[in-house]
Design brief:
The protein is an alpha+beta fold. The protein is built from 5 helices and 4 strands; from the N terminus they run E-H-E-H-E-E-H-H-H. The longest helix has 13 residues, at 15-27.
Length: 141
């Protein structure tokens, strides 16, 4: 394989998100994962077929063959590729996927507050980050 099997697009302003990406990077002994910080000023979502608001709402990833995965599908793929699929086995239970998706969306929406509660420090959210969504100057987000 020449490139990563999965590229994860994460919020570098979120301590919880940064912590999880660091774990995945550490576990990924085979180099199957790549990481892109969507909070970087030079990041553009144009090639992904989505916008920054969607990327800020839920974790997104792309597979080597170009498929876009969102939310728990991204989590499941990343942990599996990092050799930790056993940690997220409940996400595989078809009857519970709606519940897991809703719980994940709730966590994602409140990730800055959860990060603070857990004492996870990443890159601090800017003053324009409210209710779990960041606004960049001039973007309207």
């Amino acid at each position: 394989m020449t490139g990563p099997a999965l590229t994860l697009y994460f919020d570098g302003r979120c301590g919880l998100c940064v912590t999880e990406m660091q774990k995945l990077r550490r576990w990924d002994k085979a180099g199957k994962l790549a990481f892109v910080d969507i909070a970087q000023d030079d990041f553009s979502p144009a090639s992904l077929g989505t916008d920054l608001a969607a990327l800020n709402a839920l974790l997104h990833s792309t597979t080597a063959d170009g498929r876009l995965l969102v939310g728990i599908d991204s989590i499941l793929a990343a942990y599996t590729l990092a050799g930790r699929g056993w940690m997220v086995w409940p996400l595989r239970v078809r009857a519970l996927r709606r519940l897991w998706s809703a719980l994940y969306a709730l966590l994602a929406r409140h990730r800055y507050g959860v990060s603070r509660l857990l004492g996870l420090v990443g890159v601090r959210p800017s003053a324009s980050c409210e209710s779990g969504l960041c606004r960049r100057e001039g973007t309207g987000f």
